[in-house]
Design goal:
It is a single chain. Helices cover 68% and strands 0% of the residues. The protein is globular and about 60 Å long.
Length: 370
């Protein structure tokens, strides 16, 4: 079939396609599961998804649809922007293999140095963080330098795949690349950070897709591992008693169905944004009129090492979640965000969704230069 052939030819990491898939996942997967699996055992869960999961209202679906259409329109508009193409051409430089090892050592070394400072300062273990360190200007700087670990993974795999494609001796760089990837995953898993654990996996997938060979099978397998191994694994690591406390039934034994519910809750339940925007659209009475956007631009200012009085602009996601009824009244630990569509709605209402989502992807196109 022609449509099936076109689907197979889609570049899943191309900005427009990946954005559409991302927004479809966070707004559409859970409602679809509610419709298709009405008698599934995980539906009676009381952890993240909850026993009272309902379909979004027509208003919510309409707003989300408007946002997605506006997102696509913004992408289409900026795709033809000649300024973007000129920037991309400027950044399209030749790969110099003879310099790779030195560059990789410098980048990897910076990443390791950041990790040493994080661990030594008390900003690593999720149960024993030093508030003096995590509230300091050094901690925010370390957060930026942490990205060098993922960049080093990218450099190693790019060079490994380059040598492998050109029939060179690649065994040494194969060990370096896979060793760096495994180290990053294990280090961040032990810290209790889901995003940082998933990041090196995504870096590997993108590099393998473009520098070696596209593979939908590789992407699907990695996606399933992230959703049903990494995310539940980090949740269980951070709270080992969660299965016994929230999932086992009257028999006081943890069954396969309990594990299924936990896996769904800690993966699909965490990425879902449909319940959040549904509650926002129903319960928002006053708009912020751009306050969170001002906070965003403040966050782009100099780090606190240079600007010690820089305002703290992080919102209270826990308070928002309890106010919207997404979190239980007694849950003072879990944090949620309003999502991109919800953020624009909170600031400017429905017009904010239309204009903001158009600008959102166009901004991403400009920043990615692709």
């Amino acid at each position: 079939m022609l449509w099936l052939k076109k689907i197979k030819q889609l570049d899943i990491f191309e900005l427009g396609v990946s954005s559409a898939l991302y927004y479809t996942a966070i707004y559409g997967v859970l409602p679809l599961m509610v419709v298709l699996f009405t008698d599934a055992p995980w539906k009676i869960s009381n952890y993240f998804i909850g026993a009272h999961t309902t379909l979004p209202t027509g208003q919510t679906l309409g707003y989300v649809l408007v946002g997605l259409v506006s997102l696509i329109a913004g992408y289409t508009w900026y795709q033809s922007d000649t300024r973007i193409k000129k920037i991309a051409e400027f950044l399209n430089k030749e790969w110099h293999p003879q310099n790779v090892f030195v560059v990789w050592c410098v980048v990897w070394g910076l990443g390791i140095a950041a990790k040493i400072v994080r661990v030594g300062g008390g900003g690593y273990f999720h149960l024993d963080k030093n508030p003096l360190f995590t509230g300091s200007s050094i901690y925010s700087l370390i957060g930026l330098i942490d990205w060098f670990g993922a960049i080093a993974v990218a450099i190693a795999f790019i060079h490994y795949f380059h040598i492998r494609r050109t029939s060179g001796v690649y065994a040494q760089w194969q060990r370096i690349a896979w060793g760096a990837l495994i180290f990053e995953i294990v280090f961040w898993f032990a810290s209790g950070s889901r995003f940082s654990t998933i990041l090196p996996i995504m870096v590997y997938l993108i590099v393998a897709h473009y520098a070696y060979a596209p593979s939908n099978k590789r992407i699907i397998i990695a996606g399933l591992v992230i959703l049903f191994v990494v995310m539940p694994g980090v949740s269980l690591y951070k709270d080992p008693g969660v299965l016994a406390r929230s999932y086992r039934g009257e028999s006081k034994e943890i069954k396969i169905a309990d594990i299924q519910r936990f896996a769904i809750d800690s993966s699909i339940g965490r990425i879902d944004q449909s319940r959040i925007v549904n509650a926002l659209f129903v319960k928002t009475d006053e708009y912020l009129h751009g306050k969170s956007l001002v906070n965003f631009f403040v966050s782009l200012g100099p780090p606190r090492m240079i600007w010690p009085e820089k305002p703290v602009i992080s919102g209270n996601g826990n308070e928002l979640g309890r106010a919207l009824g997404i979190l239980a009244p007694g849950d003072f630990n879990t944090n949620i965000g309003p999502s991109v569509i919800g953020e624009w709605y909170l600031n400017f209402g429905p017009p904010g969704i239309l204009i903001g989502m158009f600008l959102n992807l166009s901004r991403n196109v400009s920043s990615c230069c692709c």
